[in-house]
Amino acid sequence: IHPRFADAPGPEEGEQDTRPKIPVCKVIDKNSYRQVKMARVKPKKTASISTKEVEVNWNIAVHDLEHRLKKMREFLNDGRRVEVVFGKKRKGWMQRKGVTDGEARGLLEMIRDQAATVEGSKEWKEMEGQEGGELRIFFEARGNKQKGEAKVK
């Protein structure tokens, strides 16, 4: 009973106590309090691996290809997954030119070779699509989380 109401007359025999019951303090166990408090805290989100997409067409110019390969290596060095997307040129004379099977295989090998220069890189998912048409290749480099640090073989 709160000290303020301690002087109030108590109940008569057989009557119920009508004095307000206000708690003065609450005795708790520290360990159980911490466990309850920690259970309420939301778990931290795990860092997801970001995926970057590099678009390439089958009739890409040499300089453009070098630039995209450089960006692909940078993304892999940063620890990101890279999805290389091949597609046909939608309009213009390059569309009519087409690409031979040998040129398509050579371009794929060049991209795989450049990805292999990054330490720990590998294809993490099966290639989707067909050579000379719509195609996707998936690369990742595990353990390369340090930005700015060159990790080239």
Sketch the major β-sheet.
4 strands, mixed
Give the H and E element order: HEHEHHEE
Please mark out the parts with pLDDT under 50 across 5 or more consecutive residues, or reply none. Answer: 146-153
Number of helical elements: 4
Span between N and C termini? 77 Å
Mean pLDDT: 80
Dominant shape: rod-shaped
Task: Provide the helix percentage.
Answer: 25-40%
Tell me the strand order in the biggest sheet: 1-2-4-3
Query: What class would the helix/strand composition place it in?
Result: alpha+beta
E-strand count: 4
Structural descriptors:
disordered C terminus; alpha+beta; 4 strands; 31% helix; 153 residues
Describe this structure in words.
By secondary structure, the protein is of the alpha+beta class. 31% of the residues lie in helices and 20% in strands. It has four helices and four strands. Strands 1-2-4-3 form a four-stranded mixed sheet, with helices on one face. β1, α2 and β2 form a beta-alpha-beta unit. The longest helix has 16 residues. The N and C termini lie far apart (77 Å). The C terminus is likely disordered.
Question: Could you give a short description of this structure?
Answer:
The protein is of the alpha+beta class. 31% of the residues lie in helices and 20% in strands. It is built from 4 helices and 4 strands, in the order H-E-H-E-H-H-E-E.
Question: How does the SSE layout of this entry go?
Answer:
Elements: H1 30-40, E1 51-57, H2 62-77, E2 81-87, H3 93-97, H4 101-116, E3 121-129, E4 135-141
Parallel strand pairs: 1-2
Antiparallel strand pairs: 2-4, 3-4
